[in-house]
Amino acid sequence: EAGVPFVKVARAWWDSHGQNFETHRELCADLDHAMTALIDDLEQRGLLEQTLIITLGEFGRTPRINASLGRDHFASAWSTSLTGCGIKGGSVYGETDEDGNKVKDGEIKAGDLFATIFDALGIGHETEYYIGSRPIPIVDFGCKPVKEVLA
Question: Is the model's pTM score more than 0.85?
């Protein structure tokens, strides 16, 4: 409402190399309450259709529990949520194998995620900006949006 185009809200310390279940029980409850309040507020004000909410981390967590009852860093699979403008509500994309060790179906690269985000925001993922005469693409060549989640 104040014309701010981008806001980042971070919650530090999701690292759960030990005591994963207790740590995430608290963290997920906090996130659930905050996300619910934000989405409800934006929807009531008629702003959800022009706001994109992205929830992500830089990697996933191992499917197996370690000796400290935690989960370690895991780059093979992780979750991201997109809510709001340009996104088909309730859609799920991708699947891991039975053990959660690798992506079975619907693997996307970081550039594909960013292409999806840009398209949801109405910014074509093939957009280029220029520094002098040098074109700078906003996503790497060949990256494509995940059409299955776009409204």
Answer: yes
